[in-house]
Amino acid sequence: MSELVIKNLHVNVEDTEILTGVDLTIKTGEVHAVMGPNGTGKSTLAYALMGHPKYSVTKGEATLNGQDLLDLDPSERSSLGLFLAFQYPVAVPGVSVANFLRTAINAHRKYQDPEDKGISIPDFRKKLKEKMALLKMDESFASRYLNDGFSGGEKKRVEILQMATLEPKFSILDETDSGLDIDALKIVSDGVNAISSETHGVLLITHYQRILNYIKPDFVHVMLDGKIVQSGGPELALKLEEEGYEWLREKHTA
Ligand code: ADP
Ligand code: MG
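A: This is the predicted complex of the input protein with adenosine-5'-diphosphate.
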């Protein structure tokens, strides 16, 4: 079992404090949903955990199996088993999906063993084929340039393929559901569910309850003004859908 522990995390963006003390512990095998209105700091949590330079941690800690993450650069965090699926994936014309994934795998292998010569082409092909089958993706996808001209749904699928191929211990999905029609949403959810297992923990950031019909969370947390103000089970997401966030805001500021 692995554990991602976030304690009293404070994060500034351009000298403004956005996260004001986040506590969260995620174990492999668990799905945690973080919900909240726009602008409350959900993406800030995701980026700060991954080590984006614009998000500076001013207080608190984040550890993976006891190892401090905050001193590491994003590639080191990735090599240790942390994965972030972007809300807005970028296009990289000239780099194929397959090439991108192989480079990422090799970077991880090199981190574990500086002498590593990289995954062999046959082994990589086999792995990629297996993961694409798992996600019901057409094989032609692999030779296309990364996200170049991809539809919203295709971009999200590549994020999930990347997650499946890198086999992280913890994945953060930042509004992977935003802008998806119901078919694309189902593809992404099926993909996440195909991967979610005892060796994988998920932090699912979402603005809407909708995706939680497909990816069942074990825990639901509500973020308001840079803090988790309420935690519960899946029923909390349903209550939010019916009643919005105001009751929590009143309770929180009272
Ligand atoms: P959420 O994901 O919950 O919608 P964000 O974490 O994106 O919220 O944003 C929280 C607050 O931080 C917002 O007020 C936003 O304007 C600000 N913020 C986030 N990222 C940046 C950034 N890169 N530059 C400036 N302000 C930012
Ligand atoms: Mg966001």
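Helices lie at 42-50, 74-79, 97-112, 121-134, 152-166, 182-195, 234-243, 246-253. The chain has a mean pLDDT of 92.
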